[in-house]
Amino acid sequence: MGKTLAEKVWDAHVVRAVDGEPDLLYIDLHLVHEVTSPQAFEGLRMNGRRVRRPDLTLATEDHNTPTLNILAPIADPVSRTQVETLRRNAAEFGIRIHSLGDRDQGVVHIIGPQLGVTQPGMTIVCGDSHTSTHGAFGALAFGIGTSEVEHVLATQTLPQKKPRMMAVNINGDLPPGVTAKDVVLALIAKVGTGGGQGYIVEYRGSTIEQLSMEGRMTICNMSIEWGAKAGMIAPDETTLAYLKGRPHAPEGGDWEAAVEYWRTLRSDDDAHFDAQVDIDATRLTPFVTWGTNPGHGVPLGGWYLLPRTSIPRSSGPPPAGPSNTWTWPRAPRCGRSRWTRCSSAPAPTAGSRT
């Protein structure tokens, strides 16, 4: 039987496999920021350990950093302490860091792709749940906790139980005005915020193939929003065009060798997926979120709940049948809220595009 894209990358990084135990995976790239790393570095210090592969570790300041006056002292004392601690730890343990004022400093999920450090077939971890962003390049990328950050710093490996495999097949041309964010919100509305739990998801189909790398990163970034361990997209010509010429991308003969390998990173025709979800992209509309989690999303023209005081008296409950391509229940008679229709210009309290 063939292998999925995720299985190919996973199996290529298994250092140790024992029945009844998690696999021990080698980690190709460890991204570090100021929030989830201080205790990990302190753990190394207390046990007299060094960072095993500082050359495979990259730090940046991005979570508690200002967007204006970035060279001035950070006003918030907690944020300032976290950033200063990361700088000291990077200097002590010999880790490359992109600090405020560095031209390559930025959001931890974005600097990897922009610098060409993120590449197909890699295993990538970071102490942040949205590390799945890097899966857009055909990398197996996922967030880890602080104790796991310490483990990777010390050993460059991580014990992990192999998840199940899911394929999300999205086909058809996107209608005008529909973006990658709408695609993933429609997916979450369909399967729920827990629909991906226990799975590595591969996004496939003609819709995905037509997206830019930024669109693909958007979809993989939100894999965690519906519970998936990671999200991946097979590398193709769009991926190669994005990476070629990046500061840390291979060059010359190394580039040709890398491309030859990257082209093998596709699910085999006879690969087995434990679950599949199909979406017809031609039926999608722009989405809005109206509640407190990504599962509270509706297409324009759909129905959502608002407080009674903000509902026009003429508004009624949703129909019993489908609204656009989605079916919604009748309005609950709780006395505190009612259903209203989502228009192209919803009231501010109705939720907004995120």
UniProtKB/TrEMBL annotation:
GO molecular function, one term: 4 iron, 4 sulfur cluster binding
Catalytic activity: (2R,3S)-3-isopropylmalate = (2S)-2-isopropylmalate
Chain residue ranges for the region called Disordered: 313-354
Iron-sulfur recorded as keyword: yes
Any single biological process term in GO: L-leucine biosynthetic process
Alphabetized InterPro entries for the sequence: Acnase/IPM_dHydase_lsu_aba_1/3, Acoase/IPM_deHydtase_lsu_aba, Aconitase_4Fe-4S_dom, IPM_dehydratase_rel_enz
Known EC number: 4.2.1.33
Keyword set includes Lyase: yes
Domain of life assignment: Bacteria
A Pfam family of this chain: Aconitase
Keywords: 4Fe-4S, Amino-acid biosynthesis, Branched-chain amino acid biosynthesis, Iron, Iron-sulfur, Leucine biosynthesis, Lyase, Metal-binding
Cofactor(s) this protein cannot do without: [4Fe-4S] cluster
Pathway: Amino-acid biosynthesis; L-leucine biosynthesis; L-leucine from 3-methyl-2-oxobutanoate: step 2/4
Domain Aconitase/3-isopropylmalate dehydratase large subunit alpha/beta/alpha: start-end pairs: 7-300
PANTHER family cross-referenced by the UniProt entry: 3-ISOPROPYLMALATE DEHYDRATASE, HOMOACONITASE, MITOCHONDRIAL-RELATED
Job of this protein: Catalyzes the isomerization between 2-isopropylmalate and 3-isopropylmalate, via the formation of 2-isopropylmaleate.
UniProt name for this protein: 3-isopropylmalate dehydratase
